[in-house]
Amino acid sequence: KTLGMGCSIQFFSANDDEAATRRHLLERDLTSALANDQLWLAFQPFLDLGSDRIRGYEALLRWQHPTLGPIPPSEFIPIAEQTGLIHAIGHWAVKTACLAAARWPRDLRVSVNFSVVQLKNKALLDAIVETLAEAGLEPRRLEVEITENVLISNFEETICLLQSLSSLSVTVALDDFGTGYSSLTYLRKLPLSRLKIDRSFVQDMLTDADCSAIVKSLVELAHELRIEVTAEGVETLDQLDYLRRVGCDEAQGYLIGKPGRIDDIPAIAARQFGV
Ligand code: C2E
Ligand code: CA
Ligand code: CA
Ligand code: CA
């Protein structure tokens, strides 16, 4: 819709109209989604590549809309952020995740995603501390997943928050690693326990020599810095094989387990990966 030569004109088509209508509807309905029990958490396992055991689960938000069906997080999380609903939803998510994890075997951790907007909230640290106490979950069993974009604005404040969390033994993972900028500064300045290599690298690492070199070197670099590495989006045994060979610590992806209902978790955990 952009004409060349710096002349930009917006045309509104029926599609734009439809998108705007859907957005308004979602924005309106998201307000009551929590109260109406339409939100739930899916859990996706992490496989330890040394022991072939499940080490924990990542909590992923799901919204089942009564008429539109499942709405992907990529669509409703931005709306939640723009409306401020993310604070209530995020609080519910971390509480629900901690309550669930408190019933799992004690060697399993739970990880929860936090976006920029959430990390800017001054009340977040107290809310997490309170939630852990209420759920009776040991802080070391909670991992907070952040992306590089949380550091673009208020770098110092974010570091301070992450340091407070890590002094409580809550661990911090840097998610989608490799997709943003200035990543090396973050490795040096943040109290990170884990780096999650983005799915796009895992996808290409067996067909693109540069990509496989990047994955291998990232694992080495992270280990030098005493940071563990989890590879995201592992879909094939060949990918799992390569990750094992380069010494990657953990794998996550459809091959190991798709995000699923909490009731299915004992079944997933019981499954062993003797590859
Ligand atoms: P993410 O944290 O990078 O989560 C991984 C995404 O990849 C999930 O998508 C997951 O379903 C998908 N995935 C996992 N394994 C595979 C695989 O083998 N192949 C493929 N193709 N995909 C795989 P999902 O659940 O749609 O979540 C999208 C994003 O929404 C998440 O990306 C995260 O950034 C955000 N999100 C989800 N839950 C929360 C939450 O509670 N709070 C916040 N702030 N963000 C969340
Ligand atoms: Ca994540
Ligand atoms: Ca990710
Ligand atoms: Ca992602």
From TrEMBL:
EAL domain residues: 23-273
Keywords: Membrane, Transmembrane, Transmembrane helix
Protein name as it appears in the record: EAL domain-containing protein
